[in-house]
What we know:
This protein is of the alpha/beta class. It has one domain (about 5-344): TIM Barrel. The chain has helices at about 5-10, 30-40, 45-50, 50-65, 80, 105, 115-130, 145-155, 165-170, 175-195, 215-235, 255-260, 270-280, 295, 300-310, 330-344; strands at about 70, 85-90, 95, 140-145, 200-205, 240-245, 265, 285-290, 315-320. Helix 11 links the parallel strand 5 (about 200-205) and strand 6 (about 240-245). The chain is globular and about 55 Å long. The mean pLDDT is about 95. The structure holds coproporphyrinogen III (CP3). The site of coproporphyrinogen III has 22 residues, from strand 3 and strand 4.
Amino acid sequence: MNKDKTILRALAGERQDTPPIWMMRQAGRYLPEYRATRAQAGDFLSLCYNSELAAEVTLQPIRRYGFDAAILFADILLLPQALGVDLWFETGEGPRLSTTTTADELATLRATADIDETLNPIYETLRILSRELPRETTLIGFAGAPWTVATYMIAGRGTKDQGPAHALKAENPEVFDGIIERLTEATIEYLSKQIEAGAEVVKLFDSWAGSLKGDDFVKYALNPAAKIIKALKQRHPSIPVIAFPREAGEGYLGFAKATGADCIAIDNSISAEWVAQNVQPDSCVQGNLASSHMVTGGQPLIQETKRIVNALKNGPHIFNLGHGITPDANPDNVQIMIDTVRDS
Ligand code: CP3
């Protein structure tokens, strides 16, 4: 391990006086330089598939703020697109996809072996970044977890309560399980290729894990994560994995041990003090400042940042937000957060 990389040290279980820091969606619309490069690319998806420009926007927040990690600029919905699903973004509304809800539609998805045809530019972005990042900056790759990606494939869009996915799970479990299995297999391949292209850490985003309860949580959030992590560890034993079962609540308990994840990312629905007691004894933790502080700033931002750093200071911790930074955030507040973490 490169000892200059504070993120890798935290992921190896090391407590540090100053926690390393990065931010979900750190390359995004709150930054004027991001908006300029996105305009140059034309639209969001063209930016994702333009390796030079995707690397450029990944580097922008590193240059501006000196974050300890850079996260690949891409999207969790590129994988279903590589499997043959139609994907586009409606301005101001979010993603739209052709739906996958029947055995026939499931059967028309492309084989895992064929996803690289679409995803090669993403691997190229990682190769550029491994050359261009400062030596102390860790490069993070990522994918959506099967459940979260399935919710978009089944509904054809984002949903508040993931209703269509829950309905298919109840009404046609064979097709539903088939979608989860296809995504699990393709995600293993996608993340392995990201690692081969230079990702030093990978993160699994399960943004809608919180709507799975009881056995469903085990079957569709925990088990697929465990399967993906086991396969990745077999192929790439030294690569740490961050799992983000967002809003899992009590589901965070034991998640690291049960899945083999090296770090659990925490949303801001639970307190850092609870996390210190119940999650951090098992693994590194990442989080969990509410992203609204990046909009509102002031003393509450400083106090909350200090509280979180203090609550998690006795174990391995990577400072981050509880969810992605929003387009209405003030870039100055990001600097205040970083200065507060590094001075406290
Ligand atoms: O963290 C990062 O900066 C890495 C890149 C990244 C993006 N999306 C870029 C993006 C990552 C890790 C994601 C993950 C993602 N994408 C998730 C899981 C995490 C989460 O936020 O819950 C989900 C559910 C998606 C799907 C997605 N992509 C949605 C629902 C949207 C539209 C919402 C929005 O913010 O407009 C996107 C678009 C998207 N993905 C943007 C970015 C920077 C905004 C695109 C733009 O420039 O217009």
